[in-house]
Amino acid sequence: MSLITITEVRKSFGQNEVLKGINLDIAPGEVIAIIGKSGSGKSTLLRCVNGLETIDDGSIVVAGAQLAPDEVHLRALRLKVGMIFQGFNLFPHLTAGRNVMLSPMVVKKVSAKEAEAEARARLDQVGLGHKFDAYPDQLSGGQQQRVAIARALAMKPLALLCDEITSALDPELVNEVLAVVKALAEQGMTLIMVTHEMRFAREVCDRVVFMHQGRVHEIGPPEDVFTHPQTPELKQFLGVA
Amino acid sequence: MTAFSTWDIVSNLLLAARWTVLLSLLAFVVGGVVGLVVLYARIARKAWLRRAAGLYIELFQGTPLLMQLFLIFFGLPLMGLDVSPWAAAFVSLTLWSSAFLAEIWRGCVESIPKGQWEASSSLAMSFVEQLRYVILPQSMRIAVPPTVGFSVQVVKGTALTSIIGFVELSKAATIITNATFEPFTVYGFAALIYFALCWPLSKSSQILERKLNVAHHHH
Ligand SMILES: Nc1ncnc2c1ncn2[C@@H]1O[C@H](COP(=O)(O)OP(=O)(O)OP(=O)(O)O)[C@@H](O)[C@H]1O
Ligand SMILES: [Mg+2]
């Protein structure tokens, strides 16, 4: 049984068809890397799975929650799948701890006490237990991104979507974030990540999706995709053509 | 006519200024509440709500306050609703303030980065929850200086209500002038009182703006 089922998804911005019939089934616990050229539709696909974009055709189902544009369906979907962004997007007016506590309290009506305990546990998990009372602008980019991961985890999602979550970081801060993601993968979290970190994708991911011009152009285990690319487009993308 | 001492003039102006203050306060506070509702409609998901709010704002921003005052004072009686100058002054200033405040606040809400909406969406918050816990707390910090600045416009706007016969500071000045024939003295004092009301407001708006620009920490 797959956890995430993406079927014939199409999406256009005006005349520009960005997703041209995407099919992808993701099993629970699977770690997927999405790679591809700029503009190939990677972010758009991820944003569709979280309901940040509407789709024109096809369907997306996450553990029984179907993507539909109304608030009830969106809420049900987003309770199952969290998202981490390139730009962290922490709430600057709240401390790290409050960032993590907010949504459980507001959306799930968890008590403040419970939410705080959960927030401390999640911040510990990403190695930032001691930063509970720090504001985002007092944290480094790597720390902010780890708080963002803790914030998403506090909602107990079944899957996490990560869109180039290390691309905005100074090189020396990339590894601390990747280490957190790797630990999550090892604990069985379902992950879909758009990434340019090819080495990380090769090490950690179960399958790699190569997107090209709005389609899944090649898909397979990292060994196949990276060492035996089938299509000229992927060969060119990997620089082995 | 020498029965009017300077103190008589000033004390009568000050008594009338109470109505200026009261009218300003009421129009600003109630206008703020109505403005919040208009703001909500202006940024709502439903397109027809946004358009209706946009029309409301343009109507009040695109016509002189004086016309709005006349339309309410002379127009409502035509529809069988008798309005006192006080009620007409209050209603028109309130509606006028609400439109301007809604537009000021919309600018502040829209200056919040899109990522804040997306992050809170992805955490399953509803539109109202996003506004309440993420967007408004951040916009409010930005909104304070222009909002305080606008309160000066409200105070000055009350002067127009003298035209429909509401006795506030300006109307009182005219009445006293008619009795004393000392327009320069009377209007001079009236202007001083307006200044004493407005200056602290515009000054604090400037100070707040500078403070918020300097302060990077929100604690
Ligand atoms: N909101 C939007 N409105 C119009 N066009 C958009 C929008 N978002 C994306 N696009 C277009 O859709 C196409 C795919 O964009 P997308 O962001 O999904 O690509 P990507 O694979 O994530 O690229 P990158 O590696 O640069 O992040 C691009 O041509 C882009 O210009
Ligand atoms: Mg992208």
Distance between the termini of chain B: 60 Å
Low-confidence stretches of chain B: none
Q: Secondary-structure element order of chain B, as H and E?
A: HHHHHHHH
Total number of beta strands of chain A? 10
Averaged pLDDT of chain A: 96
Could you tell me the number of beta strands of chain B? Answer: 0
Major β-sheet profile of chain B: none
Cα distance, first to last residue of chain A? 37 Å
Count of DSSP H/I helices of chain A: 9
Bound molecules: adenosine-5'-triphosphate, magnesium ion
> Helical content of chain B, roughly?
over 70%
Q: Which properties best describe this structure?
A:
heterodimer, A: 241 residues, alpha/beta, 6-stranded mixed β-sheet, 4-stranded antiparallel β-sheet, 9 helices, 25% strand, globular, B: 219 residues, mainly alpha, MetI-like fold, 80% helix, binds adenosine-5'-triphosphate, binds magnesium ion
Structure report:
The complex is a heterodimer of chains A (241) and B (219). With 241 residues, chain A is an alpha/beta fold. Helices cover 39% and strands 25% of the residues of chain A. Chain A contains 9 helices and 10 strands. Chain A has helices spanning 42-49, 71-80, 96-108, 112-125, 141-153, 171-186, 198-204, 222-227, 232-238, and strands spanning 4-13, 16-26, 31-36, 57-62, 65-66, 81-84, 159-163, 190-194, 207-212, 215-220. In chain A, a hairpin with a 2-residue loop joins strand 9 (207-212) and strand 10 (215-220). In chain A, helix 3 packs across helix 4 and helix 5 packs parallel to helix 6. Chain A is globular. The mean pLDDT of chain A is 96. Chain B is mainly α and 219 residues long. Chain B has a single domain (6-218), classed as MetI-like fold (Orthogonal Bundle). Chain B is 80% helix and 0% strand. Chain B is built from 8 helices and no strands. Chain B has helices at residues 6-42, 47-61, 65-78, 85-110, 114-122, 127-157, 169-180, 183-214. In chain B, helix 1 (6-42) runs antiparallel to helix 2, helix 1 packs antiparallel against helix 7 (169-180) and helix 2 crosses helix 4. The radius of gyration of chain B is 21 Å and the shape is flat. Chain B starts with 5 loop residues before the first helix and ends in a 5-residue tail after the last helix. Chain A binds chain B through residues 50-52, 71, 74-75, 78-79, 82-83, 85, 87, 89-93, 102-103, 106-107, 135, 137, 148, 151-152, 155, and chain B through 113, 115-116, 118-127, 129, 133-134, 137-138, 141, 216-219. The structure holds adenosine-5'-triphosphate (ATP) and magnesium ion. Magnesium ion (MG) binds next to helix 1 of chain A.
